[in-house]
Each structure stands twice: as structure tokens, then as C-alpha cells.
Amino acid sequence: MQEKHLYEYSVIRILPVIEREEFVNVGIILFCKKANFIKVHYFINETKLNVFAKELDLEQVKLNLQSLEKIAKGDKDAGQIAILDVPSRFRWLSAVRSSAIQLSRPHPGMCVNLEETAKRLFEELVL
């Protein structure tokens, strides 16, 4: 019998106009403490975001999402947060914030394959 992993994930959302509280799901972050695993998947549907707000700075959004990914990977160029342990990075990434990029509250789950689960959640919630 294969070992099951307890994981948590958050959905990455873009709020083109924060005051309207409308959002577009653009990615997921999946985390498993026991496996020391964290993965970020994202995709920016520019056409969809332009429907919400043409004035949104998509280049800045892309840079911010790249930063999230670098922090998750522990890239030393991503600053002090990136050198923390995996659970601390996930907690920082999934913390509540009032910016154009926000994350859902973490959701738990169980799975056998973390990579496949990250891919499935990304396809179901974003694509």
C-alpha cells in the first residue's frame, strides 16, 4: 500500500480592481510538510484579466507571480523569506494580504502523488 501524504493548497488569485473583490484564479501552491514539498503552478489568461480591468499592469503581475515561485523554490535571489524552511515559506505565501495578488485560505487533502495532485488541482481550479 502506498503512503498517503497530508497536503495543503491555496489558490492564487488576481484581483484586478481590489475594491470590487472580483478575482480570477491564476495558480495554486501545494505544500506537504512531511515530504518537505512545495510547488507553485500558475498561468495568466491575459484576455480574461483584460475583461476585468484593462489598466491592470500585467508585467508587474507576472513579476510578482515569478517572485512567489522563486520564494516557494527557495531561490536565494528571492530574499530572506526564500531561505526559510518549506512550512514557513508556505505560511508566508498563503498569508492574508490586501493586494492585487491574493491567496485563498489553505485547504487540506490526502494523496499518494504530490506532483500529480498539484497538476490536477491546477487544471481543475485554474485552466
What report would you give on this structure?
This protein is of the alpha+beta class. It has one domain (5-125). Helix content is 34%, strand content 26%. The protein has four helices and five strands, in the order βββαααββα. It has helices spanning 46-52, 58-73, 86-93, 114-125; strands at residues 5-14, 24-32, 37-42, 101-103, 107-111. Strands 1, 2, 3, 4 and 5 form a five-stranded antiparallel beta sheet that branches. A hairpin with a 4-residue loop joins strand 2 (24-32) and strand 3 (37-42). The radius of gyration is 15 Å and the shape is globular. The protein starts with a strand and ends with a helix.
SSE order and pairing:
Blueprint: E1 5-14, E2 24-32, E3 37-42, H1 46-52, H2 58-73, H3 86-93, E4 101-103, E5 107-111, H4 114-125
What attributes characterize this protein structure?
127 residues, 4 helices, alpha+beta, globular
How do the SSEs run, as a string of H and E? EEEHHHEEH
Separate helix tally: 4
Tell me the total number of β-strands: 5
**Quaternary assembly:** single chain
Chain-averaged pLDDT: 94
Structural domains: how many: 1
What integer value in Å does the Rg equal? 15 Å
Sum up the overall morphology in one term: globular
